């Protein structure tokens, strides 16, 4: 067996063993990125097509829909966005809800805050410009068949809410979206050109998206157990019953692999006494570490 194939197989076995030990549902998708994403890589998943609450991982698709609109000339990253007070009482995370209304940002900065601080007020204003229909259209064009964006603002839901009451995605869809962004950021034809066509974004806008994801400030899941300054382009999320994180992992030679992890049906308290949400983040960090140990020779 080729060494890279053997490493990938070991990573898959370790991921499944870690998931088997948990009293809640974990889905993941792992995609290798040989030649920095320019060649087709191995992929594996667990519950890869199962619908999970998308939570704030949805914002990657929102960003790409905004960038597609920029490429089409419908939006301008330098245009000003005024952050008003309409949504202040309907959002849960971010900085802007704590600042006085009337702040003016560029669309570029609004998209950046939406990703790196998961700012929901910024997200609401970006979605005002883009529209949910455009986000769903991008997902359909990119082949994200299990993803549905139903709400611009996240409604308050009980922890036992039906999954279809929320925005949903699948581990396979989120991993595919991240893979397309990586491929699309590589100038030239081949798989990169196809990714640009599916996303409706040229290499420079895919590179912008990847750079924004690399500046993520919430590093308590996928990056938590990795060496300091490990480069990951990622976006995490947490809902009323779930924790998730998906990212592109880099080595010295460029992108190495994509790992998207979703947990669901989290109990309030785990058997070891940890809160379910805290334990899920630790679990995702262990999954990430297992992949890193096998995929970084």
Automatic annotation (TrEMBL):
Record-linked InterPro entries: Beta-lactam/transpept-like (IPR012338), Beta-lactam_cat (IPR045155), Beta-lactam_class-A (IPR000871)
Entry annotated with the keyword Acyltransferase: no
Alphabetically ordered keywords of this record: Hydrolase
UniProt-listed Gene3D superfamilies: DD-peptidase/beta-lactamase superfamily (3.40.710.10)
Annotated GO biological process: beta-lactam antibiotic catabolic process; response to antibiotic
Pfam family, one: Beta-lactamase2
Coiled coil: none
Domain Beta-lactamase class A catalytic intervals: 41-263
Presence of keyword Repeat: no
Protein name: Serine hydrolase
Provenance organism: Nonomuraea deserti
């Amino acid at each position: 067996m080729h060494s890279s194939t053997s490493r990938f197989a070991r990573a898959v076995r370790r991921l499944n063993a870690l998931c088997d030990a948990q009293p809640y549902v974990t889905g993941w998708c792992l995609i290798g990125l040989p030649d920095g994403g320019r060649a087709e890589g191995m992929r594996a998943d667990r519950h890869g097509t199962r619908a999970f609450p998308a939570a704030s991982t949805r914002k990657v698709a929102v960003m790409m829909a905004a960038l597609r609109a920029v490429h089409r000339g419908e939006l301008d990253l330098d245009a000003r966005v005024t952050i008003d007070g309409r949504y202040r009482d309907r959002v849960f995370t971010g900085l802007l809800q704590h600042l006085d209304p009337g702040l003016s940002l560029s669309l570029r900065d609004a998209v950046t805050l939406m990703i790196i601080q998961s700012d929901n007020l910024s997200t609401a204003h970006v979605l005002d410009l883009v529209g949910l229909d455009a986000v769903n259209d991008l997902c359909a064009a990119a082949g994200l068949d299990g993803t549905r964006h139903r709400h611009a603002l996240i409604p308050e839901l009980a922890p036992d809410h039906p999954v279809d009451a929320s925005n949903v995605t699948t581990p396979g869809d989120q991993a595919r979206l991240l893979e397309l962004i990586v491929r699309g950021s590589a100038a030239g034809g081949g798989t990169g050109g196809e990714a640009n066509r599916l996303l409706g974004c040229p290499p420079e806008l895919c590179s912008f998206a990847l750079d924004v994801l690399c500046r993520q400030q919430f590093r308590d899941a996928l990056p938590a157990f990795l060496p300091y300054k490990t480069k990951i382009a990622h976006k995490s999320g947490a809902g009323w019953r779930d924790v998730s994180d998906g990212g592109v992992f880099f080595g010295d030679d460029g992108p190495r692999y994509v790992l998207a992890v979703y947990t669901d049906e989290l109990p309030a308290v785990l058997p070891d006494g940890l809160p379910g949400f805290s334990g899920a983040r630790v679990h995702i960090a262990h999954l990430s570490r297992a992949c890193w140990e096998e995929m970084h020779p």
